[in-house]
């Protein structure tokens, strides 16, 4: 149990789209503090969405909504046995999981088809907005696992 309450750090919206989700995507994508590189990748992908005649923020929100899970499982140890207890996912964790699954799926795409990471990210975001892709599959697998362990939902903390 923590001794004191922790302040929630407020994230500043990004400078181009003025969106906190885009700022989080940039932060999660960033490696070794190379924020300008991450910004360039994300903004290139969102500009490509704009060139396709779609609203980039709406497409990103749609992708996040389709990829964020409602339930996940947490292991709970009881009497020498471990049970996977389904719990409802908080809003902040939904965003974290959705963006990380989209980034993981983009990273796992082959380099032969897509020459830059911004194209991989673009493909994954557009697929996720259409309820397809690896990120959406990961969400469905997580929710299916929670559904199969529904019998242990009475073991909540």
Automatic annotation (TrEMBL):
<dbReference type="GO" id="GO:0019843">
    <property type="term" value="F:rRNA binding"/>
</dbReference>
<dbReference type="InterPro" id="IPR000235">
    <property type="entry name" value="Ribosomal_uS7"/>
</dbReference>
<dbReference type="Pfam" id="PF00177">
    <property type="entry name" value="Ribosomal_S7"/>
</dbReference>
<dbReference type="GO" id="GO:0003735">
    <property type="term" value="F:structural constituent of ribosome"/>
</dbReference>
<keyword id="KW-0699">rRNA-binding</keyword>
<dbReference type="GO" id="GO:0006412">
    <property type="term" value="P:translation"/>
</dbReference>
<comment type="function">
    <text>One of the primary rRNA binding proteins, it binds directly to 16S rRNA where it nucleates assembly of the head domain of the 30S subunit. Is located at the subunit interface close to the decoding center, probably blocks exit of the E-site tRNA.</text>
</comment>
<dbReference type="InterPro" id="IPR023798">
    <property type="entry name" value="Ribosomal_uS7_dom"/>
</dbReference>
<keyword id="KW-0820">tRNA-binding</keyword>
<dbReference type="GO" id="GO:0000049">
    <property type="term" value="F:tRNA binding"/>
</dbReference>
<feature type="domain" description="Small ribosomal subunit protein uS7">
    <location>
        <begin position="3"/>
        <end position="150"/>
    </location>
</feature>
<comment type="similarity">
    <text>Belongs to the universal ribosomal protein uS7 family.</text>
</comment>
<keyword id="KW-0687">Ribonucleoprotein</keyword>
<keyword id="KW-0694">RNA-binding</keyword>
<comment type="subunit">
    <text>Part of the 30S ribosomal subunit. Contacts proteins S9 and S11.</text>
</comment>
<protein>
    <recommendedName>
        <fullName>Small ribosomal subunit protein uS7</fullName>
    </recommendedName>
</protein>
<dbReference type="GO" id="GO:0015935">
    <property type="term" value="C:small ribosomal subunit"/>
</dbReference>
<dbReference type="InterPro" id="IPR036823">
    <property type="entry name" value="Ribosomal_uS7_dom_sf"/>
</dbReference>
<keyword id="KW-0689">Ribosomal protein</keyword>
<dbReference type="InterPro" id="IPR005717">
    <property type="entry name" value="Ribosomal_uS7_bac/org-type"/>
</dbReference>
């Amino acid at each position: 149990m923590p001794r004191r309450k922790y302040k929630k750090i407020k994230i500043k919206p990004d400078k181009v789209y003025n969106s906190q989700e885009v700022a989080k995507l940039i932060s999660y994508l960033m490696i070794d503090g190379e924020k300008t590189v991450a910004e360039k990748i994300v903004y290139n992908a969102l500009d490509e969405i704009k060139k396709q005649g779609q609203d980039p923020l709406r497409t990103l929100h749609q992708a996040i909504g389709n990829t964020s899970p409602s339930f996940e499982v947490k292991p709970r140890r009881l009497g020498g046995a471990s049970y996977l207890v389904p719990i409802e996912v908080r809003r902040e964790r939904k965003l974290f999981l959705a963006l990380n699954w989209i980034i993981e799926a983009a990273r796992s795409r082959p380099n032969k088809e897509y020459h830059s990471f911004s194209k991989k990210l673009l493909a994954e975001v557009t697929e996720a907005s259409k309820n397809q892709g690896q990120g959406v599959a990961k969400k469905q697998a997580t929710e299916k696992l929670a559904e199969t362990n529904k019998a242990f939902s009475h073991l909540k903390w």
